[in-house]
Design goal:
Strand content: under 5%
Oligomer: single chain
Distance between the termini: 15 Å
Structural class: mainly alpha
Helix content: 55-70%
Largest sheet: none
Number of helices: 16
Length: 351
């Protein structure tokens, strides 16, 4: 595991006590410690009820996935074997005893583990069949809404799986079948379809879906899609102006700054690109696309790119450290409370 994690992130800051509760580790984003703690509790030899075993297993697999250690998580998910088998069915209710979140995660991970993306798609359809059965048995409106939302989520995951398979055309056709006549939900789908068409290079279709977004949903989506369409047409100067206009909207400021930097890079203005991306880092922003793009710029403009990328990793790790005068939670003793820590993988910095 350590070889996939940059040096500044290999030791939690400060090191977590073995007695730290698992929910606390997760809430503070100490995913590596959470994965280790989950495994230790699963293997300590004590007898645990099935619900607790499944909860620990979900935390373990989800933590590994969030650490970009999906390969490890995928191999461990194989231990559950066929999650759709009668073995995981309650004899009295015929309902699956596995938590829904674990089932959804395992379907994707086992598709990766067996190097069979289609297995994941089939698994989502199996889950959809169960979700429809549970919907038909739901006794309250809240339960029906829950299973309806899970069905819609599965539909989106099937499309995402097709995108991961590289079958973008099939994903586009699939997303088109998910429309239900619900204006709000269909507006979100139109925005997704517009982005997918941009990925496909089908700019006229992307413009069509952008225009189809309802006015009630379209304001925010159109603000973002318009400059993206300009970029797709190669009109980077226009896109820069559009991203700058969007920057005044606080909701989209970070998004607009990063995309403006990308446009400037295509215009050959590497110094301005570097300045904008480093400005976001200085503002304590550190999401994957930002660090990845800045690492790419370092590779393009200096022979010391590895040194610069390591310095970037150190900067991101340091910005997540708690303030020295941070107030302690009651009962925390001398342990400083960390709420912003998030371990990163080498891929975040192109190391």
């Amino acid at each position: 595991m350590p070889q996939e994690i940059p040096q500044p992130f290999r030791a939690p800051h400060p090191p977590q006590s073995p007695s730290t509760p698992l929910p606390t580790l997760v809430s503070r984003n100490h995913f590596r410690s959470a994965a280790t703690s989950s495994a230790a509790q699963l293997c300590n030899g004590s007898s645990l009820p099935p619900s607790e075993i499944f909860a620990l297993l979900y935390t373990r697999l989800a933590s590994l996935t969030l650490l970009n250690l999906t390969t490890f998580a995928a191999q461990e998910s194989k231990a559950l074997e066929d999650i759709h088998s009668p073995f995981y069915r309650d004899a009295s209710t015929d309902s699956c005893i596995l938590p829904w979140e674990l089932r959804v995660l395992v379907v994707r991970l086992q598709g990766i583990a067996f190097n069979d993306a289609r297995r994941g798609v089939v698994g989502y359809y199996d889950l959809a069949r169960d979700a429809r059965t549970e919907f038909s048995k739901a006794a309250t409106d809240d339960e029906k809404r829950l299973w309806k939302s899970r069905l819609r989520d599965l539909g989106v995951r099937v499309g995402n799986a097709m995108i991961e398979m590289g079958d973008l055309g099939a994903a586009k056709r699939h997303f088109e079948t998910l429309k239900t006549g619900d204006e709000e939900a269909d507006g979100v789908l139109d925005a997704r379809l517009a982005l997918l068409c941009l990925k496909l290079g089908d700019i006229p279709a992307a413009e069509k879906y952008t225009d189809a977004i309802p006015a009630s949903e379209g304001e925010g989506a159109e603000k973002v899609l318009k400059p993206l369409l300009s970029m797709a047409h190669g009109r980077y100067e226009d896109a820069v102006l559009e991203w700058r206009a969007l920057k005044d909207d606080g909701k989209y400021r970070v998004l607009s700054l990063q995309n403006e930097a990308v446009c400037l890079l295509y215009l050959g203005k590497v110094d301005e690109t570097t300045h904008l991306l480093e400005q976001l880092i200085a503002e304590r922003r550190s999401f994957h696309a930002l660090t990845f793009n800045l690492a790419t710029v370092y590779e393009l403009c200096t022979e010391r790119s590895r040194t610069k990328k390591l310095e970037l990793a150190e900067t991101v790790a340091e910005m997540m450290m708690p303030d020295q005068d941070q107030d302690q939670d009651e009962g925390e003793d001398d342990e400083r409370v960390i709420r912003g820590w998030a371990e990163r993988g080498n891929a975040d910095f192109k190391l």
